[in-house]
Amino acid sequence: MDNRQIIPVRSQWILVIWMLIASLGVFLFCIWVMMDALQFDSKYSLIAIMASLIGIIFGLYLFLHALPGFFKKGRVIFEIVTGPDGRIQSQKKSVLLKDIKDITIDRKGFTPRSIFFEDLIIYTQQNKTVKIPTYNMVNDVVFRKQIIEYILPYMSVHAQESYKAKFTDFPGERENKIE
C-alpha cells in the first residue's frame, strides 16, 4: 500500500498581485517621473532624474526576478511528496524529507536578490544548504502548517525536536503541558 501524496505548494493570488503592483508600479511610476523631470521645469529636475533612474532599475529588477513566479504552471512553486521516501521538489531541486535537518523560509546571503526575496532554505543531514525560490508568493503561515502536517512526521527525531524548539507555542505541545 503506497500512501504517498503530492501536495502542491501554490502561490497566493493576493501575494502575486502585490508583487505585480510593487514591481511594475514602481517601474511605471518612475518612468512617469523621469519623463516629467526631463522637461526641466523645476530646479529639482536633476534629483528627480537620478531618483527615477534608481527606481526604474529597482522596479525592473524586482519584476524580472519575480517573473518565474508569475508564470508557474498552476501557480505551483514547489511540491511536497509525502511518505517514508518523500521529498520536497521543485523543477530543478529535490531533497528527501528524511535528510532534512532544518527547514525555513528566510533570506540567505548578502546578494541583491536575498535583500528583496525570501527562499525556502533546507539544511540537510549532509551539511548542504538547498535554496528553493518562493518569489515572496508563498504564505508563511500556510506553509508552516504544511511543514507540521506533511514534512515533520518524516524528518529525523533530532530534526523534529530542533524544529519544534524554534516555536514556543507548537500545536499539540500546549495540551501536554497543561495536564
UniProtKB/TrEMBL annotation:
InterPro entries documented for this protein: DUF5381 (IPR035324)
One Pfam family per UniProt: DUF5381
Domain of life where this protein originates: Bacteria
TM helices/strands, residue ranges: 12-34, 46-67
Keywords (A to Z) from UniProt: Membrane, Transmembrane, Transmembrane helix
Protein name as it appears in the record: DUF304 domain-containing protein
